[in-house]
Specification:
Radius of gyration: 26 Å
Number of strands: 28
CATH superfamily of the largest domain: Aldehyde oxidase/xanthine dehydrogenase, molybdopterin binding domain
CATH architecture of the largest domain: 2-Layer Sandwich
Strand content: 15-25%
Number of domains: 3
Length: about 700
């Protein structure tokens, strides 16, 4: 078993170390980094969805007072690698999607650059485009794998024979729309190109990932690119990898003769080259005996990708492990469309996939005449159905039971559509949550003694609002057996030892394990009375248990929904999430993470939908006025808690990632509660009043 780190500072509800700096405005985000005499970039974007440029007239823009230069494919520096076409920016006149960067105005002020960009005249040779996802397309294909490395398809047993013999079946299609991340801080890069190379102050979930990606694109030596990102105003996956704006800023900085170039996307531009969650069409079939025990599961997912770059979301992968069934099949198929490339969005795969599966499970419970919690308990597998490995820990049943107790589930009348209170139909619903508990390779940490009982801990990790500044310092304190006040943490800079990206709920497990390894190496070499300047650097240690156990976090989502009987208006007055996520490093930041995910799940359930006009290929509702997200008025009594879970196998901390599991299952719980309230089953998100009135 893993030699678990003894907690002292871990588990304590310390307030955020960066909280004061953020609320007083002294935390310098990417755009606020101090640079001398900057220029400002505003992009020119394609207004066709597919084709090529036949002419671009920049004269009027260049004549504006304050314009330094206009950048196009005709004068941009040549990039060194086209291995990834997302980064092949301004290298040709080809247009792959509407909103693609086809130029940029660089000026003395943002306002000047924005105005001058409207004066650039572009001629196109447009080609027919296609932006519509359908399950009956004849050009759907199976990718080699789905994100990040899962097999595209999986099958066990004879699914068709099991369905034919099943006493009870569910056979339905569920859909989720295109969704956009919209973190509070838009994507931003401040690029400075001087004699020493290129520096990027970037809003990023992983500075070392940005560096590793941009070095071959620009043909740089690794030691001539530095990326800095101490504070990030949210990412939800969209900042997990660089995008075209990084390259555009770098190209502009190269032309700017040593002057820094500041580039931040506007809110409207966030609906283009910054990534999105693919829409999905999911066909699910469940077969069960009369007692509700599953005999067959089939989950077929159809989604889109960009024509110029593939991203295959792992929509059906969670179905492979959630419930026991001897006959199972999951598949993924893609359509190449003229759209920007999709990317990670909070719990990619699990979020849309578990919406479909958990609504289907609710339908099966109704068909079997079983309580939805009891149905899930009966189908809880003793081992991972996909790999056959034992669980390192699996707290799903405990979460369901504890959530039922806290939520008052025992008094629930299962009959749908019969509770009318003051004009509102009332219902409750439940859904399961899951997310892998893993680590990513590539991290190292250094520890240096200050000689006064203080220690400097350095690792190129990221805090995207998750609490890394606080929780990683707590881990370091316990690893060195010193109080939290003795730790000075340094993160968010490629000048520091390498760190994996903040993604896949792997950050704290990866970085924390690395810091513990460095601390133990430091103590072994220097003891407890280390002199000033004593230093050790160590990488993330191997975990011998990773090949022997299936490692996942689990949870249960509960929701109460009220639907106005006359208008179909939907409200969610009450939500509860109960999670089993190993050791909780900091209860304060953990609760914030869980509730943030649940809030995003509510937003997914009721509001979020990017509407694409097939005639022009663009997102029509590309702002907060029409792309609705949950606001304070939409959130009432929302609570998150967790069960004590001792998992000695996942890592030396005993922790599992919590950044994403909070969103998984939340939309399904709300959809199931909506059915309980109204008797109407909504299988396509978001749940809007027109669907209920229909």
């Amino acid at each position: 078993m893993t030699d678990l780190l003894r907690p002292r500072e871990m588990g304590q509800p310390h307030t955020r170390a960066d909280g004061v700096a953020k609320v007083t405005g002294t935390a310098a985000y990417a755009y606020e980094q101090k640079v001398d005499n900057p220029l400002y970039l505003y992009p020119v974007q394609a207004t066709i969805a597919r084709g090529r440029l036949t002419g671009i007239d920049t004269a009027a823009a260049e004549a504006c007072d304050g314009v330094a230069f206009v950048l196009t494919h005709e004068n941009a520096a040549r990039l060194a690698s086209n291995d990834d076409l997302e980064y092949w920016v301004l290298q040709s006149g080809d247009v792959a999607y509407r909103g693609q960067f086809i130029g940029a105005v660089v000026a003395e002020s943002f306002e000047t650059a924005r105005h001058a960009a409207t004066l650039v005249r572009v001629d196109y040779a447009a080609e027919p485009h296609d932006v519509v996802l359908r399950a009956d397309r004849d050009d759907l294909y199976a990718p080699d794998h789905v994100n990040p490395w899962y097999p595209t398809d999986s099958a066990q047993g004879d699914v068709e024979e099991a369905f034919a013999d099943a006493a009870v079946t569910v056979d339905q299609t569920y859909t989720t729309p295109t969704e956009h991340h919209n973190p509070m801080e838009p994507h931003t890069t401040v690029a400075v190109w001087d004699d020493d190379g290129l520096t990027m102050y970037d809003s990023s979930q992983g500075v070392h990932w940005v560096k590793a990606t941009m070095v071959p694109v620009f043909g740089l030596d690794a030691d001539t690119l530095r990326v800095v990102s101490p504070y990030v105003g949210g990412g939800f996956g969209s900042k997990g990898m660089p995008h075209a704006h990084n390259v555009l800023a770098g190209l502009a900085a190269r032309m700017a003769a040593g002057r820094p170039v500041k580039f931040t996307l506007t809110r409207q531009q966030m609906f283009g080259p910054a990534g999105h969650r693919t829409p999905t069409i999911q066909h699910i079939r469940l077969g069960a005996g009369a007692d509700g025990r599953l005999t067959a599961i089939a989950h077929e997912a159809v989604e889109h990708t960009a024509r110029f770059k593939e991203f295959a979301e792992q929509t059906a992968v969670a179905t492979r492990l959630m419930y026991a069934a001897p006959n199972r099949r999951t598949t993924h198929r893609l359509a190449r469309l003229d759209v920007p490339v999709p990317t990670w969005m909070r719990a990619p795969g699990e979020t849309p996939g578990m919406f479909a599966l958990e609504v289907a499970m609710d339908e099966l419970a109704v068909a079997c005449g079983l309580d939805p919690i009891e149905l899930r308990v009966r189908n809880d597998p003793e081992r991972d159905p996909e790999s056959g490995l034992p669980w390192s820990s699996r707290g799903l049943v405990a979460c369901l039971r504890e959530g039922a107790r806290r939520f008052g589930w025992e008094s629930r009348d299962p009959t749908p559509g019969v509770r009318l209170r003051d004009g509102w139909l009332v219902g409750t619903g439940v859904a399961s949550s899951t997310y892998p508990a893993g680590r990513l390779p590539g991290s190292a940490a250094s520890i240096r003694s200050g000689g006064d009982g203080r220690y400097e801990v350095s690792i190129g990790a990221a805090d995207i609002g998750t609490g890394t500044w606080t929780t990683l310092a707590q881990i370091a304190a316990d690893a060195l057996d010193v109080p939290l006040s003795a730790i000075e943490l340094r993160i968010g800079d490629t000048a520091l030892p390498s760190a994996s990206v903040a993604g896949g709920s792997t950050g704290m497990a990866s970085w924390g394990s690395t810091v513990v390894a460095a601390a133990r190496a430091f103590r072994e070499r220097h003891g407890v009375d280390a002199p000033a300047g004593a230093e050790v650097t160590a990488g993330m240690p191997d975990n011998p248990h990773e090949e022997n156990f299936a490692m996942h976090a689990f949870g249960a989502q509960f929701a109460e929904v009220r639907v106005k009987a006359d208008t179909g208006e939907v409200r969610v007055p009450r939500m509860l999430g109960v999670f089993a996520a190993g050791r909780i490093i900091n209860p304060t930041t953990a609760r914030s993470q869980f509730i943030g995910g649940m809030t995003m799940g509510l937003s997914m359930a009721l509001f979020e939908e990017a509407v694409v006009d097939p005639r022009f290929g663009h997102v029509v509702n590309h702002d907060f006025a029409s792309y609705h997200i949950a606001a304070h008025a939409d959130i009432a009594d929302i609570d998150a808690t967790w069960i004590d879970e001792d998992d000695p196998y996942v890592n030396v901390l005993g922790s599992k990632g919590i950044g994403e599991i909070g969103i998984v299952g939340a939309a399904a719980a709300i959809a199931n509660a909506t059915h309980h309230a109204t008797g109407t089953r909504i299988r396509d998100l978001p749940i809007t009043l027109d669907k209920l009135l229909r």
